[in-house]
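Backbone-to-sequence.
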């Protein structure tokens, strides 16, 4: 029986397994190393990961994203109301004090708590790992943000139990990064520690850690993070810019149309990646709204 590691990301997640004296990242059913952190519901079935990604625009009203940001939260949470709502395309409701989503599943209006949604996603990750390793998968280690509260950590454990996973440990993602760095290093000092700075800019947050290494041991000396600044904020700035441009030049309000906003956000995410290596780049979106390209 294999022990797998799951890096729980807001945009996409990764599974890895230790084998052949190394760490192998597991590929999903379409040979991608990253699996979209999405759950979508249709008239006949639910869609998880890659299949949910194909529903992201056409079925946006029933596609749940940002699982990392909403699992273990409550509807009254100020951050949920003021920040997370703007990134979600499904209605949020309260179910017995837990944050839940309202969707249309198999022709009926249904509510699922965020723990249930995350459990569904974890079953997909478990399935991917089982297919790749050709062995039953139960034991796992899950990397989560250092800023997760006890309630959020408990929610991850509850979702894992529902998915049939035995979590051996929840590990802070910055610590997991440091462990991944140190585990393969053969030149670490035995006496004088080597201090290394790790900068992790994620989809919805970023973390900076200072870690001290000696042979066979690591110590996290300091950690700082911003829970509300990441890649999606760059996307949002581009979206706001182009939405204003479309309104001025073409008289269309993209922000009033949910599907148009999803198309624009997807286009801006791709544009951001191109601009990482280029000084300028065009934004091309077909039929964004009112038959305009």
């Amino acid at each position: 029986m294999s022990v797998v590691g799951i890096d729980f990301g807001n945009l996409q997640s990764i599974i890895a397994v230790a084998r052949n004296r190394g760490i192998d990242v597991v590929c999903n059913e379409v040979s991608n190393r990253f699996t979209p952190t999405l759950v979508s519901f249709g008239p006949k079935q639910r869609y998880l990961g890659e299949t949910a990604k194909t529903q992201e625009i056409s079925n946006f009203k029933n596609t749940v994203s940002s699982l990392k940001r909403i699992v273990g939260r409550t509807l009254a949470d100020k951050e949920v109301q003021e920040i997370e709502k703007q990134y979600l395309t499904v209605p949020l409701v309260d179910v017995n004090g837990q944050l839940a989503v309202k969707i249309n599943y198999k022709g009926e209006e249904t509510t699922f708590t965020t723990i249930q949604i995350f459990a569904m996603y974890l079953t997909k990750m478990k399935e991917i790992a089982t297919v790749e390793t050709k062995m039953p998968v139960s034991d796992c280690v899950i990397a989560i943000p250092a800023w997760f509260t006890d309630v959020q950590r408990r929610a991850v454990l509850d979702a894992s139990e529902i998915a049939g996973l035995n979590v051996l440990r929840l590990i802070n993602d910055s610590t997991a990064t440091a462990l991944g760095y140190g585990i393969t290093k053969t030149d670490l000092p035995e006496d004088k520690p080597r201090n290394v700075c790790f900068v992790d800019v994620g989809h919805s947050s970023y973390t900076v850690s200072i870690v001290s290494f000696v042979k066979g041991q690591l110590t996290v000396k300091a950690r700082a993070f911003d829970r509300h600044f990441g890649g999606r904020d760059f996307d949002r700035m581009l979206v706001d810019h182009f939405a204003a441009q479309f309104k001025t030049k073409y008289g269309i309000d993209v922000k009033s149309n949910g599907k148009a906003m999803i198309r624009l956000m997807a286009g801006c995410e791709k544009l951001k990646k191109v601009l990482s290596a280029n000084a300028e780049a065009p934004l091309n979106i077909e039929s964004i709204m009112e038959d305009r390209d």
